[in-house]
Structures are given as C-alpha cells and as structure tokens.
Amino acid sequence: MGQTTLFTREQIDNRVTEMGRQISTDFAGTEMIALCVLKGAVFFCADLVRQVSLDVALDFVQVSSYGNQKYSSGVVTILKEPQLDMRGKAVLIVEDIIDSGLSMREVFNYIEGRGASKVKTATFLDKPKARKVPFHADYVGFTIEPQFVVGYGLDFAEKYRNIPEVQVLSD
Ligand code: PRP
C-alpha cells in the first residue's frame, strides 16, 4: 500500500487555528460543550478546543459504522453515550470526517433530542461526493475528493491514526 501526504502538519495547524477563531466568535456568550466523536476525532478535537478562547466543556460520544471495512456498512450504532447534561447548552459536535453522512446524521439527531439550545457541527475533513444522505457541516477544515485518507486520527483497520499528517492511502 502507498501513502502520499495530503495535508502537512503546518497546513493542519493553520486551518485548525482559523476554525478555532471562528468558533470562538460564534459561540461567545454561550455555555459551550465540545462533543468529540470517538475515536477518529480525538486529535482534531484536542487541537480545536485549545484554539477556542472560551470555557469549553468536553464530552465524548462513540458511534460505529465501519468495522474493519474501507466503506461504510450503512448501519450506525451508538457505542458510548455522552455524560453531560446538554439542556440549554451550545453543543459543537466534532468529527474527523464526514463521508456518507450517516454517522453525523445519527449523532446530530441524537443530540438534538437532548435539549441543547444550539447544535452545530465541525468536521476536519468533508467528502461531499461520498454522501448517501445529505448533511452540511457548519465548520469544515478541508473538502476532499472521494479518496481514502489516514492519519490525524483517521484509521484503516485501526492502523495509521497516530500519523501526525493526513495521507492518502492507495492500493
Ligand atoms: C468514521 C469517522 C466518522 C465516520 C464518517 O468513524 O470517524 O465518524 O466514519 O463516515 P460516514 O459519514 O460514512 O458515517 P468510524 O465509524 O470508522 O469510527 P472511528 O472514528 O472509531 O474510526
């Protein structure tokens, strides 16, 4: 398998800093919760919240749709529920990638039902051409073509998550 760099550390840092600034402006005056979607978003979420100049509560949710496959099975299961009370809070759902849109749609609908005053979505990568259901994120790091990417939290069969940059995986 070959791997080529798609986004360097510097490109990632610059973009995440910009996103953090925008989110700081947009969420000012709210009680904000960043909801990290495990596992892929851990690195992005950790970097992003440290670029937000507000008090940010942190929580985690885990859904799984992929197993060890390269493509989505289409079945989204909630594996771990968030712990915080979301009522009256401004929740930012933080994802590493939106592909088919199935995972984000599931998390979004689930969180909307928990009484948050606002629910927004941030994704590090967006692959709009791979959508099976429509979903538009409020904050997008980079829009990419339908290629398989790894690193910065993104895995292939649990490998490559800890690569610091984003790489394209080819057969
Ligand atoms: C990946 C990724 C997103 C989702 C995107 O998660 O982290 O959550 O798939 O794909 P979709 O838009 O087609 O639903 P995965 O279920 O593989 O779990 P992981 O984050 O633990 O790798």
General description of the model:
The protein is α/β, with parallel strands linked by helices and 171 residues long. It has a single domain, classed as Rossmann fold, CATH 3.40.50. It has three helices and nine strands. The protein has helices at residues 9-26, 42-49, 102-112, and strands spanning 2-7, 32-38, 56-64, 77-80, 90-98, 118-126, 139-143, 149-150, 166-170. The strands form two sheets. Strands 4-3-2-5-6-7 form a six-stranded mixed β-sheet, sandwiched between helices. A three-stranded antiparallel β-sheet has the order 1-9-8. The relative contact order is 0.21. The mean pLDDT is 93. 1-O-pyrophosphono-5-O-phosphono-alpha-D-ribofuranose binds at residues 37-40, 64-66, 72, 95-104, 155.
Salient structural properties:
171 residues, alpha/beta, Rossmann fold, 3-stranded antiparallel beta sheet, 3 helices, 33% strand, binds 1-O-pyrophosphono-5-O-phosphono-alpha-D-ribofuranose
Walk me through the topology.
Blueprint: E1 2-7, H1 9-26, E2 32-38, H2 42-49, E3 56-64, E4 77-80, E5 90-98, H3 102-112, E6 118-126, E7 139-143, E8 149-150, E9 166-170
Parallel strand pairs: 2-3, 2-5, 5-6, 6-7
Antiparallel strand pairs: 1-9, 3-4, 8-9
Helix pairs in contact: 1-2
Bound molecules: 1-O-pyrophosphono-5-O-phosphono-alpha-D-ribofuranose.
